[in-house]
From TrEMBL:
InterPro entries found in the cross-reference section: MAL, Marvel, MARVEL-CKLF_proteins
Organism for this UniProt entry: Neomonachus schauinslandi (Hawaiian monk seal)
Residue span, MARVEL domain: 19-163
Subcellular location field: Membrane
GO-annotated molecular function: structural constituent of myelin sheath
Protein name as catalogued: Protein MAL2 isoform X2
Domain of life where this protein originates: Eukaryota
Length: 164
């Protein structure tokens, strides 16, 4: 509480390289790392189900780029020059990305679960996913879950800063 009785908002994440010494900064780095792995793994599976995996690719690429920008804004110190409620923006950003990534994780898990589904391709019946595609999609599903968990942890930390 300040002298006037109004609550004092908590400070935003530190600017500059000090952001990397916080839990929030560490989680953003993990989000970038694991999100990039999801992107690479889904792309390397040749996207056998574009209707499902197209959304996974969109979310992973978009979140990767925006997380890099988000970290760059803090690393460059621009948060001290831009007058905004960074605690609220941090919360909103991580909430939106958490919801989108959770959906992407579910779609990637659904794609992986279709491994044994047989489809008729002209004259032969073959599995929907080859063994290699299945293995890649299992790894992509695991990393999508880990990335979703990292965004969830960042969301919790942002909520704690925004609403102490």
């Amino acid at each position: 509480m300040s002298a006037g009785g109004a609550p004092v908002p908590p400070p935003p994440n530190p600017a500059g390289p000090d952001i990397l010494r916080t839990y929030s900064g560490a989680f953003v780095c993990l989000e970038i790392l694991f999100g990039g792995l999801v992107w690479i793994l889904v792309a390397s599976s040749n996207v056998p189900l574009p209707l499902l995996q197209g959304w996974v690719m969109f979310v992973s690429v978009t979140a990767f780029i925006f997380s890099l920008l988000f970290l760059g804004v803090f690393l460059s110190g621009m948060v001290t020059q831009i007058d905004a409620n960074w605690n609220f923006l941090d919360f909103v950003y991580h909430f939106v990305v958490f919801v989108f990534y959770f959906g992407a994780f579910l779609l990637e898990a659904a794609t992986t679960s279709l491994h044994d589904l047989r489809c008729n391709t002209t004259m032969t019946v073959s599995p929907l996913l080859s063994d290699n595609q299945y293995n890649i999609n299992v790894a992509a599903t695991i990393f999508a879950f880990v990335t979703t968990a990292c965004y969830g942890c960042s969301l919790g930390l942002a909520l704690r800063r925004w609403r102490p």
